[in-house]
Design brief:
Largest sheet: 8 strands, mixed
Helix content: 25-40%
Number of strands: 14
CATH superfamily of the largest domain: Spore Coat Polysaccharide Biosynthesis Protein SpsA, Chain A
Structural class: alpha/beta
Distance between the termini: 60 Å
């Protein structure tokens, strides 16, 4: 299987049992993109074959080469698809410091990748711990996509008056059905009309737009959380896909250091790992945060204490 970087060239989708995977990234997330791909390659089954489609919002050539060098772990095909941010300049990004316009790229996957009918979309802050064959094989012929309920699904479903609310970091997409309704032509006018309610941006867009046309799947395919949560640390032992949803992306490096050392970002990841260790130590001595809407959690020398929060 060829491992060359391919730009704006149709990549064959006729390879037997190929698993199509899509990411979107800019230069700031390129290292996490590499780590996520490396986790796929180290967890694959012997017969798994991959074609990666990278929606490129400004990844540097040096980073592309580092990603290509992951072929030292296992072979794959890859295609970098250049994205013009002008297509997304009217998309709202209010109330966030984590997201960039790259988060909206997934809305145009049916157009960006016309040769593919079924694909897995993954955020860059995701660690794969098993073969993705079972996920890719899920039957979604009657659905637009399959997804896992969001960690705050109940709250967000109530906010948007939905029955359930999913997390868009892991999606199994039926691109054929997207094209049947001309989704990519209609979604941006729809965003303009509903921008005032889009708190979580493209994720809200997909949840509202498709509502009851989503197949919800087991949380093992998108176990969300951060390392401050004891339940999350317990749950990821049995998860196939781990999603580090907080702004602390060093959690990903901390939990996947052996894989990180197989990439060309060894030095950078080592620094991030050391920085995370230092932060853990500080948090062990003293930390105060909101446990939920009713309590604050204070950690002192490794012990947790709770006090009632004042209601507004």
């Amino acid at each position: 299987m060829s491992c060359n970087i391919v730009e704006n060239v149709k990549v064959s989708n006729k390879i037997d049992k190929v698993i199509n995977i899509c990411y979107s990234s800019d230069k700031n997330y390129a290292k996490y993109l590499a780590l996520s791909i490396a986790s796929i390659l180290t967890s694959k089954s012997p017969k798994d074959k991959f074609c990666f489609y990278i929606l490129d919002g400004g990844i540097l050539e040096a980073d592309k080469q580092k990603i290509l060098n992951l072929k030292n772990i296992a072979d794959f095909e890859i295609k970098f698809i250049k994205v013009d941010n002008k297509n997304f300049e009217n998309c709202p990004l209010e109330n966030t410091t984590q997201l960039t316009l790259a988060s909206y790229y997934r809305l145009l996957i049916p157009d960006f990748i016309p040769e593919v009918d079924k694909i897995i979309y993954l955020d860059c802050d995701i660690q794969i711990k098993s073969s993705l064959k079972d996920l890719f094989s899920i039957d979604i012929n009657d659905y637009y996509f399959a997804a896992v309920e969001d960690i705050a699904g109940e709250v967000n479903a109530k906010r948007l008056k939905l029955e359930k609310y999913f997390n868009s970091g892991v999606l199994l997409l039926n691109l054929t059905k997207f094209r049947e309704i001309n989704f990519t032509s209609n979604v941006f006018p729809w965003i303009d009309e509903h921008r005032d309610i889009l708190r979580f941006h493209d994720q809200d867009v997909l949840n509202i737009y498709f509502a009851d046309k989503i197949k919800f799947i087991d949380k093992k395919w998108n176990m969300q959380g951060n390392l401050l949560s004891k339940s999350f640390k317990q749950n990821i032992k049995d998860a196939n896909v781990v999603h580090y949803v907080s702004s602390e992306k060093r959690d990903f490096v901390f939990m996947a250091l052996p894989i990180a050392m197989k990439t060309d970002y060894k030095i950078e990841f080592s620094r991030l790992y050391i920085g995370r260790i230092c932060k853990f130590i500080i948090q062990w001595f003293f930390r105060i945060r909101n446990k939920d809407e009713y309590q604050k959690q204070i950690t002192l020398l490794g012990f947790d204490f709770y006090i009632d929060r004042k209601k507004k």
